[in-house]
Design goal:
- The chain is about 35% helix and about 10% strand.
- It is an alpha+beta fold.
- It folds into two domains: about 130 residues, 3-Layer(aba) Sandwich (Glutaredoxin), CATH 3.40.30; about 45 residues.
- A four-stranded mixed sheet has the order 2-1-3-4, covered by helices on one side.
- Strand 3 and strand 4 form a beta hairpin.
- The longest helix has 20 residues.
- It is found in: Mitochondrion.
- One of its GO terms (molecular function) is structural constituent of ribosome.
């Protein structure tokens, strides 16, 4: 099988992918991972590393190798981008739906610490996950009478006793139709302005035709 080839093929197995702990909140849209791969330009005298005795990028490299497959599987709507050899310090940047970004400094941190920080700051809590699972089960249940539509007990809310019927079946009253209420309001304001300006006598004031039809002749 093809997925068994390559380094650490366990990363492509379904039990491993489902065992991830980072489930991003809905507002997280993009995740950037910035680190360096010093071994690509390795020299015998170790001059390719600024500080040979200390590699600050090893934690984020291991995080990308072991945890990113789980994150991709559990967050299919989040775009994950990797940038190599572009920064002296390793960090993760997450872009939110409102255009703001959150930066995590991963200098000299282990992959477990990086994962815990992401879960604590941008991950969903266990209460949120349990609530979403319960809500999804309730909404997809056929016994839920509050759901309307095709293949349900009721196709429309107007079939429930006491609800407003569909306008295509029974015509709505004029008080519930926007064009009549707007015309009634405009006529009343016009009459009021004429009375204030003195162009119309108060004794000769009559309710607008829409108001007479609605309140006096209905």
């Amino acid at each position: 099988m093809g997925f068994l080839f390559g380094p650490a093929p366990i990363r492509r197995t379904l039990p491993y992918l489902k065992n991830g702990s980072l489930l991003f909140r809905d507002r997280v849209k993009v995740m950037e991972v910035h680190y360096n791969m010093f071994w690509k330009s390795k020299t015998p005298d170790m001059s390719h590393i600024p500080y040979p005795q200390h590699d600050a990028h090893v934690g984020l490299r291991e995080f990308y190798f072991w945890n990113i497959p789980q994150i991709q599987y559990m967050n299919p709507s989040v775009q994950i981008v990797r940038f190599l050899e572009m920064t002296p310090h390793p960090f993760i940047r997450c872009w939110l739906s409102d255009g703001k970004d959150v930066i995590f400094d991963c200098d000299s941190q282990s992959r477990e610490t990086i994962e815990k920080r992401l879960v604590h700051v941008l991950g969903k809590t266990q209460q949120m996950i349990a609530h979403e699972e319960a809500t999804n089960v309730t909404q997809t249940s056929d016994s839920n009478a509050a759901i309307f539509g095709v293949d349900r007990a009721r196709f429309c809310m107007c079939e429930v006793p006491g609800q407003c019927p569909c306008p295509s079946v029974i015509k709505l009253p004029k008080s519930c139709r926007g064009k009549f209420t707007k015309q009634l309001k405009d006529d009343a304001l016009k009459e009021e302005e004429e009375i204030i300006e003195g162009t119309k006598e108060l004794e000769s004031f009559e309710p607008p035709s829409i108001a007479r039809e609605r309140f006096f002749y209905s």
